[in-house]
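All the exercises in this workshop are built on plain-text protein records. A learned vocabulary of local backbone shapes supplies the integers on the structure line. Once this layout is familiar, the rest of the handout is easier to follow. An example says more than a description, so a record of this kind follows:
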Amino acid sequence: MPSTKPTEEQLMKNLSEKFATFSQDFRNVHREAKKQGFVNIMKLLWKDLFVGRTAFQWVYLLLLSSVPFFLEWTNHTGQHDWLGLFASWTGIVCVILVAEGRASNYLFGAVNSAIYLVLALNKNFYGEVLTTLYFFIMQPIGLYVWLSNRINDQGKVEESHFEAKKLNLIEWMRYLALCAVIWIGMGFAYQSIHSARPFRDSITDATNGVGQLLMTRLYREQWIFWIATNVFSIYLWWDQSLHIQGMYWVYTLNSLVGWYQWTKALKKEVA
């Protein structure tokens, strides 16, 4: 009976094809960006941020993004936490833009990751530090993938349309296995540096890591992993930072909205 395992030649061929696809996609994005020019790119960014949003979406954005300011001005500690305020605000705007399928979410995501990294370092949350570094690196990669999909599918970057996908059973098993591997692997890593709660801290490494991969690849199921991340993060930041805790409560609400919106987008594509 012939073996069904891929040969070394087949593996090399697959890698070569993927590299060729990546190279072609990168050239497409670069060519389109060069054609648009800096001024047009700024116009496209403005359009992606502000155009095509319904009245409800505007109210939703303004209400949720005002939460950090409300918490700041009702907090009677006598000391303002400006860094926490800006981290919370950029994070909330970022996840709302993700739920709407807007590529500009990566701009806010990069700023949020940089600020959150400083906050996590100050609190000695080493798991959060590694996760935030991963997020920061993934922002330009995610933007490239979203733009690449848009250009390849539509031949232009002007439209803010995105095509959501959903996991099948085999893909679900793969991503759950990856989540378990990251959780256990990072747990042992934290244990080796004598972390007080290694396997508890590594939970969000796993859910964040898989959630970001699914987001980059436009899978609806990212929102399940984001919900898990948010619940554990609320516990982690309890009594540590009012702004960051409030941010994760808003994230949780937005994750439910994101799941609904991406499910609706899937149904439109099927129809």
The chain has a mean pLDDT of 80.
